[in-house]
User: Fold this.
Amino acid sequence: MPVPVPALPQESLFADDGVAAATTGGGAPPGSAAAAAVPLAERLRPASLDEIVGQRHLLGPGKPLRAAFESGRIHSMILWGPPGVGKTTLARLVAGAVDAEFVVLSAVLAGVKDIRDAVERARAARRAGRATVVFVDEVHRFNKAQQDAFLPHVESGLFTFVGATTENPSFEVNSALLSRATVHVLAPLDDDDLGRLLDRALEVLAAPPLTEAARRRLVAHADGDARRLLNAVEVLVELNPGARELDEAALERGLGELLRRYDKGGDVFYDTISALHKSVRGSDPDATLYWLARLLDGGADPRYAARRLIRMACEDIGLADPRALAVALDAAAVYERLGSPEGELALAEAAVYLAVAPKSNAVYTAWGAVRDLVRRDGSRPVPMHLRNAPTRLMKTLGHGAGYRYAHGEADAYAAGERYLPDGLQAGPFYVPQPRGLEQRIAERLAEWRARDAAGRGTG
Assistant:
């Protein structure tokens, strides 16, 4: 049976993560004064589990939260997920499932006094024969002492604790509190869920239909966040009164800036990253700068762009120019020091350096080949002459026997010595490219291999 949301006093709503699921019914009548005064996200807030869109892994038949709701045995929990996936809605439904007092705290605004007030409200509710659910939004923002303040009351059963967080609770929530609560991971809404939510929003707003292209664009823009989708739809309809159809042109007129800046989870975002990486690999500094600007203008965190540049320095330039990695790391450090927009110039400088640097994926290829070999091959023993021999017993057993100390040999090179496991016939893994510094490395390796062959009598 649908679980109704309890009537909540307005003063208890200190925080709200918005709606992250559509309702299949309810809401104020389209065009009514009440509907006009209430934000769309609030009008579409689900009033029962059956109205929630998404989170089927938790709310489907026989799933953990569904079973807890239907049995009426509600437990303390941490709801972990990105913004706009229904954390507050689920917390409200938890309270409704057991007809409990619902107390909401925001870890951003609340302090110890607010926690004490919540405890007193729970005690008053217990005296009146009612249970209490204390919901803490952004619980990761509470410090250790504040989180500890809940422990004795959760332990005694004074109230059911529900925390919401966008951060990994393993790192952000005290282990003592974590051990007393079940962690439920909420997922971003998929495209089908967002499509259902979009249809309901258009119905409630009495809006004109969307073209298929505009629909795909809005869903991509939402990036799994229902609140973002609902806000965008509401703005779109308000900015296009009297329209018979809403197409991509209407989206650009009303939401152009937002659409460009918030497509971070869609194909456009990853395609832009791909274009940047391939422009660097293709040694085109102009295209590199263009795609870097597009990435940052699209709302990407510049720190993310810096990490990608560091990856490119390792993967596509490598030892052809070892300075490239230092340049990328320095650019990341400069950005941390200066921030935007000044620090972005350092990222642009590093990107151009990577684009014009000599290219080699020799180390990247070698590392992949070696890892593949190690996964497939057995755990070969370390050759005796390479083993550590810190004790007399180990030396007696032959550890380190016959090892040739390279610094004691001509040119500090033990010609003919073998360092791979006995019997392993593989390689060479690392094959330097005839570009940049790797050209000199190739020449040196060729000389050493010739000396090895002579030292082993195979030359």
Q: What stands out?
A: The two ends are 84 Å apart (CA to CA). Residues 436-455 form the longest helix (20 residues).
